[in-house]
Write a structure and sequence with these properties.
Blueprint: E1 4-10, H1 17-20, E2 29-35, H2 38-48, E3 53-57, H3 58-66, E4 72-81, E5 88-91, E6 106-109, H4 115-128, E7 136-139, E8 162-165, H5 172-177, E9 183-185, E10 199-201, H6 206-217, E11 222-229, H7 230-235, H8 239-258, H9 271-281, H10 295-307, H11 317-320
Helix pairs in contact: 4-10
């Protein structure tokens, strides 16, 4: 039987590239891989449904799913996960010493609906009782405005949340450097830090803060998930399991390579020791796939989305994923 031609899109993670380079096969499929940075993949998926299988923003998927406005179904595979204590940067001349000091301040975001921002707000709410409405939000490109890929409008449904765009031609970095905003939620250090702007991390020892958060909550936030076009699934329901198995195999291959002591495959001294220490903190499985192993974080992220007014209706964790994966 001829293999099914499919298009697949993800970024070049160590846990996905074994599929792209042929070491891991998608059973029954003849895949054509496209490697894109996440924001580009998301834009193409949500605007054009361009790929059969694609990496997707988990937060934006939940929002579009609640509106019955998405062409994809998802499986419990999470190629990107991250804590976001380290993503909070603030000016050090505004009296911001603790998270509670963010109340009443103006904070910049790439996108209010993006998962990194959702996770940061969820942590601030759960741990420090800071509501989305306690902060004024400014949305725009962090650095180069010409490099801003639109992700779609945020359909915020919560009264009292103030969200405004950056002025034309400005970036969040320039606003932060000039003191027009008090901080940002950023995926990278804002470039103004290197040029001497009075900017610091809110959590100076962010690694310890994130590890402590995990030990207390058991939450390792999900950033992105893997989605399959609904029309493809309708004609080929077997493909969901084939895709899931391939992503799992590729992830296990990546984890095994982190533990090679003979000649490190990762350009990082002590990577084997780092892996062992992380596995100890996270009880062995440092990057779990599957529904049951991730129920706690999925339910927390649904709650955060509801609290922030991002959902058109209440959601359950079970309804988000294909039913065949709910017990795995």
């Amino acid at each position: 039987m001829a293999k099914l031609p499919i298009s697949v899109c993800f970024w070049d993670y160590d846990r996905t590239m074994p599929m792209a380079d042929g070491r891991v096969q998608l059973e029954g499929c003849d895949p054509n891989f496209t490697i894109l940075r996440p924001e580009d993949a998301f834009h193409r998926a949500f605007y054009h449904s361009e790929f059969d299988i694609t990496e997707l923003s988990f937060s934006r998927f939940m929002a579009r799913y609640s509106e019955n406005n998405v062409a994809y179904a998802i499986i419990p595979v999470f190629p990107s996960r991250a804590f976001r204590h380290g993503a909070l940067f603030v000016r050090d001349d505004r009296g911001i010493e603790t998270p509670e000091d963010l109340k009443g301040k103006t904070i910049g975001l790439f996108d209010f609906e993006m998962t990194a921002a959702l996770v940061a707000r969820g942590m601030l709410n759960d741990e420090h009782q800071i509501l989305a409405s306690d902060i004024n939000w400014v949305v725009g490109a962090v650095e180069d405005a010409s490099d801003h890929i639109p992700q779609g409008d945020t359909n915020n449904k919560l009264k009292g949340v103030n969200i405004s765009p950056v002025p034309n031609g400005c970036s969040l970095n320039s606003l932060l450097a000039d003191g027009q905003i008090d901080g940002i939620v950023g995926l990278y250090e804002p470039s103004c830090m290197a040029t001497g702007a009075p900017v610091k991390r809110l959590f100076s020892d962010w690694r310890t803060a994130e590890q402590d958060y995990f030990l207390r909550t058991g939450i390792f936030p999900i950033m992105h998930t893997v989605a399959i076009r609904k029309s493809l699934l309708a004609e080929n329901p077997w493909i969901a399991r084939s895709v899931y198995n391939a992503f799992c195999e590729a992830k296990e291959m990546a984890l095994a390579e982190l533990q090679v002591p003979q000649a490190s495959k990762v350009t990082l001294p002590w990577v084997v020791a780092e892996y062992a220490e992380t596995a100890k903190i996270m009880n062995g499985d440092i990057w779990p796939y599957g529904f049951s192993a991730n129920r706690r974080v999925i339910e927390a992220m649904i709650r955060w989305s509801q609290n922030d007014g991002l959902l058109a209706r209440p959601l359950t964790a079970e309804e988000l994923f294909l039913s065949e994966f709910l017990e795995n």
